[in-house]
């Protein structure tokens, strides 16, 4: 630590860096998972070659990643989680807290990511001769992606936080606030 910099500023810098790592890793996970889900559930003609399928997956992944990482930069999830903890009297590192936080995170990220991906695929990648009606495709994608995203967030977010967290820091800190130094 720099001798001229107070410890709280160093901790804030470290937490910003950690938050970016978590946002980046979650954006990759969610974008991959939801793009794969969209690709696997898509209706396509049986004679369709593999190249457009792979290109569609990669394009969908790229668009989804930009949206997800952008949300991660704009939405302060630690502050959202701290507000949830206060409002619902949640205790740090409990199953109830994890369920509530993962549902709220899913509600913030998935509808927007899915909307952008479905709209992008429908209007930019689909052959006009093989387009299903937009609204049923949109609604079914929202439902399926919400369920898949909930599982991904619930299972992998704690692991990603643990991987990204600097040594000596614990996620959730007191009262579900920002991570703090271990006692």
- How large is the share of residues in beta strands? under 5%
SSE class? mainly alpha
The strand count comes to: 2
> How does the overall form come out from the CA principal axes?
elongated
Biggest β-sheet strands, sense, barrel? 2 strands, antiparallel
Give me the Rg, rounded.
19 Å
Order of helices and strands: HHHHHEE
User: How many DSSP helices?
Assistant: 5
Question: If you had to describe this structure to a student in words, what would you say it looks like?
Answer:
The chain has 183 residues and is mainly alpha-helical. The protein has one domain (10-33, 52-165). The chain contains five helices and two strands, in the order αααααββ. It has a two-stranded antiparallel ribbon with strand order 1-2. α2 crosses α4. The model is unreliable at 173-183 (pLDDT under 50).
Secondary-structure blueprint of this entry?
Elements: H1 7-41, H2 50-74, H3 77-88, H4 95-125, H5 134-164, E1 169-170, E2 180-181
Antiparallel strand pairs: 1-2
Helix pairs in contact: 1-2, 1-4, 1-5, 2-4, 3-4, 4-5
Give a short overview.
This protein has 183 residues and is mostly helical. The chain has helices at 7-41, 50-74, 77-88, 95-125, 134-164; strands at 169-170, 180-181.
